[in-house]
Each structure stands twice: as structure tokens, then as C-alpha cells.
Amino acid sequence: MDFRLLQTFVIAASTENFHQTAEALYIAQPTVSQHIRQLERELGISLFVRTGKRVKLTPAGMRFLPHAKKLLEEWHRGLEDLHAWRQGYTDKLQIAASPTIARTTLPHLIHRYTKMYPDVDISIRIVESVEVGPLVQNGQADLGLSRILPGEFQVTSHLLYEDPVVFAVPHSGGDMDAPLPDWEQELTTHRLLTHNHPGYWDELLLMLRQRGYSLRTMVVTQTDIAKRFIEEGLGVSFLPRSAISRDLFENRFIELDTPGLPLPKVASYLVLPRLNVSETAERFVEILTALYPGIS
After folding, report:
1. What is the 3-class SS of the chain, one letter each residue?
2. Would you give the distance in Å from CA 233 to the centre of its chain?
3. pTM score > 0.90 for this model?
4. Banded model confidence at residue 38, pLDDT cuts 50, 70, 90
5. Residues 6+ apart with CB under 8 A from 72
6. Rounded to the nearest 10 degrees, what angle do helices 3-15 and 29-43 cross at?
7. What is the pLDDT of residue 59?
8. Mean pLDDT across the stretch 122-132?
9. Is there a contact between 11 and 68 (Cβ–Cβ < 8 Å)?
10. ∠ Cα 72 78 83 (to 5°)
């Protein structure tokens, strides 16, 4: 079977429009119709019915769709494996990592791993922490690096390190010897950028409001975007120190102490399958253990 036909079918099923399918595949619309007709002839079934300018899957088309997706996934996986083999790779390691860990901790780990094991083909999937556990449990990642403790039963979690949360404000660009701004004034006169981390914001906001602080908040769910907003003077935030260490060093941000306000710590976790840890993942764990001897 020509896998181009399956790809056309899967995209047409998602768009329900042959014109949009043609645009997605960079082919002519008559070619889309030709692919679908050819696939229908090979299968001996009708896959779509037309409803005005759109198309809908027939019951047979809906039944065939998950099989077509699996066939395409296997085809692409096979091509990737062959391509890796041709490049000299003999094994592979799939990592799922949160954006913050991918930006701060992971580069050093990957540098050490590739130096020690140059024949391993590494793929890194950047996902939100809530997605790390399911990917490891389902076998779509050999290991995960998460900022929250996963709840999946078929994985094990190991604490890597804890990171203090700090109050970050934009650098004024003035005299380096000038007194630091008052943290309470910064908090109450600027927008507070919230929920850029999944672990601590609800409790922190509750504590701030219980203490009588009048807050104007803005939800910004990505740490990188929250940092950019702070740099542009659009607000202030409570962020893990590791996420802004370079910004502090380069004087883009100021870290202000918050006397009387206890700030939380956030943890980073190594996530592994409960059974059948791959050899490539075990090698990665060895590097982690050397860097973080207190892994538990």
C-alpha cells in the first residue's frame, strides 16, 4: 500500500475538507480526491460522504481511521530507525522533559551523555510536567524529567533536587549601589504574573490574600513568557531560582527578599517505568546519580 494514501486519508479525516487537506500536504486538491478514490478501491469501501463543501467519514471510514494512524506511526517510526542506523546509531533514548528542566538542567546532562555514549540516538520531547508520567507509563518515553510528582501507577519517581522559589522583579537599570526596591511595594503596584509553574501558585496566592495584599494578577502559564513579560516591565512574579539564574547574573532581574513571607520550594523528579527500564535509560540514571548523589 502507498503510505501517501494513508497520510492523505488521515489528514482529510481531521480537516473534513479536501481543500484544506491539499494545503496541509502541499498538493493539488484533485490529487487528494485521487488518493482517496484509490484507497477506497484498494479497501473496497467508501471512506467519506460529501456534505456540501465538507466531507464526513462513513462508519467504515471511522472504523478504519485508528488502524490507518497506527500504520502511519509504524511507518514513520521505521523510517526514523533506519535513518538513525544509517547515521551510525546503534540504540536510542527517548526523554520527556518539562520546559524548565529542558532549559536549565538537561543541556549539561545531554552533553555528558552524548560524550560517553555517542552511538545513542537521543530524542527529547518537551511537554508540560503533567504529561511526563503518562508518556513514560505508555512507553512513549524511556524516562522523564518532571517538575511535579506524577500520579501514574506504572512509573516510579525519584527526587532529584529542590529549588527555592524567589520573588523576581525587572532590573531598573539604575545605580548598582542604590537600595533595593521594597518587595511589598513591587508586589502591590505591579501585575503579579501567576501559574507559570504547576506546583505552588494556588497556595501562594491564598497566603498573600490572607495577609491582606491587594493584588492585580495575570495568568501566564509559560515560564519563558513570564520572564519575557518581567523583562519588558509588564509585571513581577515568584519563580524557581534555577529558571532565572542567568537573568540574575546578567542583571535583567532582581531577586528581592520577602521578610515574613515564607516561600515554597519546588522539586524536580526523575520518572522511570516501574518495569523494564531500558539500558540506555539506566546509563542516563548513572549520570544523574553522579551529579545528584542524593537521588531518592
Report:
1. CCHHHHHHHHHHHHHCCHHHHHHHHCCCHHHHHHHHHHHHHHHCCCCEEEECCEEEECHHHHHHHHHHHHHHHHHHHHHHHHHHHHCCCCEEEEEEECHHHHHHCHHHHHHHHHHHCCCEEEEEEECCHHHHHHHHHCCCCCEEEECCCCCCCCEEEEEEEEEEEEEEEECCCCCCCCCCCCHHHHHHHCEEEECCCCCCHHHHHHHHHHCCCCCEEEECCCHHHHHHHHHCCCCEEEEEHHHHHHHHHCCCEEEECCCCCCCCEEEEEEEEECCCCCHHHHHHHHHHHHHCCCCC
2. 26
3. no
4. very high
5. 3, 6, 7, 10
6. 110
7. 93
8. 91
9. no
10. 125
Q: Give the per-residue pLDDT at 256.
A: 94
> What Cα–Cα distance (Å) separates residue 180 from each residue in 3, 186, 245?
63, 11, 18
What is the Cα–Cα distance from 103 to 247, expressed in whole angstroms? 13
Residue showing cell 555514549: 117
181 backbone dihedrals φ, ψ, rounded to 5° = -60, 160
Alpha carbon of residue 138 to chain centroid = 16
The length of the chain in residues reads: 296
Query: Looking at 73-82, 123-132, 210-219, 249-258, which range is the least confident one?
Result: 73-82
Model confidence band, residue 274 (pLDDT cutoffs 50, 70, 90): very high
Q: How much is the CA Rg of the chain, to the nearest whole Å? A: 25
Cα separation values, 243 from 96, 99, 168, Å = 18, 10, 11
Tens digit of each residue's pLDDT (9 = 90 or more) over 145-194:
998 889 888 999 999 888 899 999 998 765 666 678 899 999 999 999 99
Residue type, 238: F
For residues 49 and 59, the answer to whether their CB atoms sit within 8 Å is no
